[in-house]
Every structure is written in structure tokens, then in C-alpha cells.
Specification:
This protein is mainly alpha-helical. The protein has one domain. The protein is about 70% helix and about 0% strand.
Length: about 110
């Protein structure tokens, strides 16, 4: 809520505030689940480099979106799920992981 109050204090429009709030939540969701899945590789620099590149690409892509406010809720589904798929493929290739690893539970 503080995010919205601060944006209102600065005079930022609600459309922009909601767009960027959803973009950040989607990035946290995607990165959080990806890090959880690949946690055993946390000491590999390729994990963090690949993930950093995905975060930068996420925000560049979101910046170009011209969605209207009511559709921002779907950002998690429309952008987040494909990003999780891309992250899994990219990190599997970068880390030279057996693809069967993705179907196993490593909690």
C-alpha cells in the first residue's frame, strides 16, 4: 500500500502505478520460483547471470506494453507463465542440467 500512497504523493497516475506494481510482482514471482527450482546451483555464476538477463528483458518488455488498467491483473498469467518456461529452458541449457531435473521436486 505504501507503494500506491507514495506514487499518489508524487502525482503518478494510477495506470502507471498499477502497471509497474504488477510488473514487479510478476518479476518476483517468476524469479522466486526459478531460484527455488534451481537452488542447488546457487553457487554457479551462470544461474545469476541468466536470471539477471531475464529480469532486464522482463522490464524492457513490460515497458513497451500499452495495456489498459483492467488488464494488468493478467500480466502474471500472460507474461509470467511464458517467462517461467523460458527461464527453465535457458537455465537448463546454461547449467547443462538434465531436463528430467525440472520434473523432480527438490524442496
Amino acid at each position: 500500500m505504501g507503494f500506491f500512497f507514495y506514487a499518489d504523493h508524487l502525482g503518478v497516475s494510477d495506470d502507471i502505478t498499477v502497471k509497474w506494481f504488477n510488473a514487479v510482482v510478476t518479476a518476483i514471482f517468476v524469479c522466486g520460483l526459478t531460484v527455488k527450482k534451481f537452488w542447488q546451483y546457487r553457487r554457479a555464476w551462470k544461474l545469476w547471470t541468466g536470471l539477471s538477463g531475464l529480469v532486464v528483458a522482463h522490464f524492457i518488455f513490460v515497458q513497451t506494453l500499452g495495456w489498459q488498467k483492467p488488464n494488468y491483473f493478467w500480466m502474471l498469467v500472460v507474461i509470467g507463465l511464458p517467462e517461467m518456461f523460458i527461464a527453465a529452458i535457458l537455465l537448463t541449457v546454461l547449467l547443462k542440467v538434465n531436463p528430467a531435473f525440472l520434473s523432480e521436486d527438490h524442496s
